[in-house]
Amino acid sequence: xxxxxxxxxxxxxxxxxxxxxxxxxxxxxxxxxxxxxxxxxxxxxxxxxxxxxxxxxxxxxxxxxxxxxxxxxxxxxxxxxxxxxxxxxxxxxxxxxxxxxxxxxxxxxxxxxxxxxxxxxxxxxxxxxxxxxxxxxxxxxxxxxxxxxxxxxxxxxxxxxxxxxxxxxxxxxxxxxxxxxxxxxxxxxxxxxxxxxxxxxxxxxxxxxxxxxxxxxxxxxxxxxxxxxxxxxxxxxxxxxxxxxxxxxxxxxxxx
Length: 256
Hints:
With about 260 residues, the protein is α/β, with parallel strands linked by helices. The chain contains 9 helices and 7 strands; from the N terminus they run αβαβαβααβαβαβααβ. Helix 1 crosses helix 7, helix 3 (about 80-90) runs parallel beside helix 5 (about 110-120) and helix 4 crosses helix 5.
């Protein structure tokens, strides 16, 4: 059989839940990869028709609601867990999750997130950590590394400016949380691990085990002032030293 007669087989394509809307993310941003992770996990768990997403303010809001073909609601800054709580109580059989950046959850929305955990809501939070305020100019964020330059820390973040916020460790501390983990998508191997972690997080919610939390470390070449390739190296050499990957809590049920 000649090459022209060989039948081509599709081995990788666009997830069905990924809409045809073009990406709004900057070149090298990992949020688009994380969008694919969410789509693939929802499809493999057959939860696309039962999922409701709540997007926080920031870059996470800008792309996901129009890129993932499920029900979405946009939320006031930091208030995604409150709106998600209402939806889960009205639709207890739905998969309800929030998608929030480090400023949305770690700064203005920290109290709202912790309140949802303390109320023992059965939700999942996906926390996007790129160490800066991406949408509003690259200012110091709760997750900015010590020594990292931003538009408001031109000489680098000092100890006097505080220390980076660790979302996954904070979530794991609370009794209402059944699962907490931190992942990244900067290599193919880590992409696969991220899918397994997010799958577990969604399964914990659907089984009623307790709150689940997944933190994604993400590159932001625009704010970091680096090329996409250099941003991947920065994650490996600097971000992962401050934010180690892994599961910080994984229990069958908070009620055991």
